[in-house]
Specification:
heterotrimer, B: mainly alpha, Na+/H+ antiporter like fold, C: alpha+beta, Alpha-Beta Plaits, 4-stranded antiparallel β-sheet, two-stranded antiparallel ribbon, 6 strands
Chain lengths: 321, 328, 97
């Protein structure tokens, strides 16, 4: 991996603000964003990502989009299938299933950071990558819960199927992302131009603000990592790399462009900490959120955002050349 | 411009689509939710930026051009709540307090409907006059008219005579939207075009996007109200649809007669037709605590607002084009 | 003033609506909810600082007649067992107005 790629990623303001957030917690600063603000920012990010993707989707050709979407769907089903037995080596069934769903699903903010990185590097990507993001949120949740159901057949009770279907499809973040994607697609670039200052000009600034808060959230959890145990820590660092390697193979087989490939790999490597926990607490309350949310939030997210993005890009450049 | 084009432009705007997504989110019971403090901040931002922009352009246009439209708006601010009160008493058979609550809401303006009408007019190539926010702030006086009716009728019925008029007057004047509108207009007029340029990236450029976000939430709120109105019966539905229709037509007509442009008379029709659900309820709750919010809020938010946004606006625009062709 | 039982329930924010429904089924006519409360219990710390909402509790305060109490406690118990949380009962005086 080349040092200038790491540096280029670190000079992404969003990443710097993320580090600032962690730093603020480590020095016990009283820096804090009022709780409604991050929540509103998250809604904004989903709306802007979805809308931009929808507008762009209209201009893309269908064949490449279909291949990417197929691969995305496949990955989000496949990942939980092998993460679950791995996690079962040490974890209870509900926890292992939640971890499987967490790593099969995706993080929109990691995706946004990677696409901001691409933009700064002057590389383009297709609008269908946002559709892939939307597509990868839900299936892993369903697969994870079904795995738990199969493994616990003798207990039988734990899972509420209706809640599961409802939660994976109408989860607030999934709904907003898909809805904005559709709106962007319907209004097209002509109707979307009025929103451009909002969805594009403001985006890097608000993403930085959001990542500052993410840094605070992650920083608060770093101290508790010891309570997590060795197995989950190793898992949270190894799983994104393993998933990225698989994603890399798929992207290579599909001959994606460099920009598309990076986003695809980042999607595979990222873990969900908004949609999955919200769904899990409805569909599988026995799972312990302190385990799977902390893994995704405190370890996998920083790993992907700080080191992952340049690492994956240099691997892509190596392979593609 | 043919009707189909107007309907298409109106429906395919991000604003209306976001509203529909919001309604769907509530209907499927998604846990999507906006934090309340942020919504407050957004609604302040929307009202203030419109007023600020209106003020800068008002400074250029001068006060003289606004006189006749302002008088017409004041006439509407008196007549619309009076009509609404009368209909609410006879057709809906509500008591005095509830009827006055309805009258206050239907007399005053829904800022979101106002914003949506401004952006639709602009998109269809007939932007409204820059002083439109002034008309909105005048129309807000309808709250005062409605509360005055309530006070008068209640005293007559000797139910409750202790609503001092001066307090109602002050309450209306210091209502959030009036302060923001007048304050914004004043600041805008003072700083002028050149002063506005420095805050334009914040107040003007992202405006449409913020409005889209806000309408998503409005869709969710309206969706929640939808469940409510099945309990309140068909009369309220008829009232909530026909009254704005009538008011819209009257507003467009008077606007055209007062010399407003196509876009201007359309926007005047839209604000006449619209019913408030943020500021007027706050005033009503303070002045008429005995009125039932679920009646006046359901009518305004659950029926009239979606009706105006989805059906009313293209209809008023169509009527305005027809009328202007006739008058020419 | 009249002697009644004061019931306080703190549990996962998700469940508080269900708790309120149960209370109503058992004849409780009013209650107060404080949303988004945080704290620490046997299932770990809840900071309420991230977006999934899984680390957030709600607080419900209500009152009931002493004879209503056993049924209410039994209705709430399974939820607390599944989700964690506390239910505290104390004697209180109710100011009639």
């Amino acid at each position: 991996m080349s040092a200038d790629l790491i540096l280029a990623n670190l000079l992404n303001p969003a990443v710097l603000f993320f580090l600032l957030g962690i730093f603020a917690v480590l020095v016990r600063s009283d820096l804090e964003l009022p709780p409604p603000i991050p929540k509103a920012l998250a809604l904004y990010l989903l709306l802007a990502i979805g809308f931009k993707g929808g507008v762009a989707l209209r201009e893309n050709n269908g064949a490449a989009a279909l291949a990417v979407l197929g691969a995305a769907l496949l990955m989000s089903v496949l990942v939980p299938l092998y993460v679950f037995p791995l996690a079962r080596l040490r974890l209870r069934v509900p926890d292992a299933a939640a971890v499987a769903a967490t790593y099969g699903s995706v993080s929109a903010v990691t995706f946004a950071t990677a696409s901001a990185f691409l933009q700064r590097a002057g590389m383009s990507h297709g609008g269908y990558m946002v559709a892939a993001l939307a597509l990868m949120e839900s299936p892993a949740i369903a697969v994870g819960v079904l795995l738990a159901r199969l493994a616990q057949r003798d207990h039988g009770n734990g899972v509420d199927l209706m809640a599961l279907v409802h939660e994976s499809l109408f989860n607030g973040s999934v709904l907003l992302l898909v809805g904005s994607l559709l709106i962007g697609y319907i209004v097209g670039s002509e109707g979307g131009s009025a929103l451009k200052p909002f969805t594009e000009t403001l985006f890097p600034g608000l993403l930085s603000l959001f990542l500052l808060d993410m840094g605070l959230v992650v920083g608060r959890r770093l101290r508790e990592l010891r309570q997590l145990g060795v197995f989950p820590i190793v898992g949270a660092l190894a799983l994104p790399l393993l998933n990225a390697a698989l994603g890399l193979g798929a992207a290579y087989a599909l001959r994606l462009s460099e920009g598309d490939a990076l986003l695809f790999v980042v999607l595979c490597a990222s873990a969900s900490y908004i949609a999955v926990p919200a769904a899990m607490r409805q569909a599988m309350p026995q799972a312990n959120p302190a385990l799977y949310v902390t893994m995704a939030l405190a370890l996998t997210f920083p790993l992907n955002v700080i080191l992952g993005i340049p690492l994956y890009l240099s691997a892509i450049r190596l392979l593609w050349a | 411009m043919d009707t189909l084009e107007i309907v298409r432009t109106s429906f395919l705007s991000p604003i209306v689509l976001a509203f529909i997504v919001g309604v769907i989110a509530t209907l499927v019971k998604s846990e999507l939710e906006f934090p309340q403090p942020v919504l407050n901040a957004i609604s302040i931002y929307l009202v203030f930026s419109i007023a600020l922009k209106g003020g800068t352009e008002l400074a250029v246009a001068g006060i003289g051009s606004i006189l006749v439209p302002a008088l017409v708006t004041l006439a509407l601010a008196v007549s619309v709540p009076t009509l609404a009160y009368f209909l609410a008493r006879t057709f809906l058979r509500l008591d005095i307090a509830n009827a006055a609550g309805i009258a206050a809401l239907y007399g005053s303006v829904s800022s979101v409907t106002f914003f949506a009408s401004l952006s639709l007019a602009e998109k269809l190539g007939a932007p409204a006059e820059p002083f439109a926010p002034v008309l909105v702030s005048l129309m807000e006086w309808a709250i005062l008219v409605a509360l005055f009716i309530a006070r008068w009728r209640l005293r007559r019925a000797e139910l409750n005579g202790d609503l001092p008029l001066s307090e109602i007057l002050i309450d209306t004047l210091r209502g959030r939207s009036v302060i923001l509108l007048l304050g914004g207009l004043g600041i805008g007029a003072l700083i002028g075009e050149s002063g506005f340029r420095s805050v334009k990236p914040f107040f003007e450029d992202p405006f449409r996007g913020v409005l889209t976000l806000f309408l998503l939430e409005m869709g969710m709120v309206a969706g929640r109200q939808l469940r409510e109105f099945f309990r309140l019966g068909p009369r309220l539905l008829v009232f909530g649809v026909l009254l704005p229709l009538f008011n819209g037509v009257v507003g467009v007509t008077l606007g055209a007669l007062a010399g407003l442009s196509l876009g201007g008379s359309f926007v005047l029709g839209a604000i006449t037709a619209s019913a408030s659900y943020i500021d007027a309820p706050a005033a009503v709750r303070a002045a008429l605590p005995q009125a039932n919010p679920s009646i006046y809020l359901t009518a305004s938010l659950g029926i009239t607002f979606p009706f105006n946004l989805l059906v009313g606006l293209p209809l008023y625009y169509q009527f305005a084009t027809w009328l202007h062709a006739l008058l020419r | 003033m009249r002697a009644i039982k004061r019931v306080e329930i703190i549990t996962d924010a998700l469940e508080i609506e269900r708790v309120a429904q149960l209370l109503e089924q058992h004849g409780v006519t009013g209650y107060t909810i404080i949303r988004d409360v945080i704290g620490k219990g046997e299932r770990g710390i809840r900071r309420g600082d991230e977006l999934s909402g899984v680390f957030k509790n709600s607080y419900l305060l209500t009152t009931c007649e002493p004879e209503q109490l056993p049924a209410i406690v039994e209705a709430v118990r399974p939820i607390l067992k599944q989700r964690g949380g506390v239910c505290l009962v104390s004697d209180a005086m109710w100011v009639k107005h």
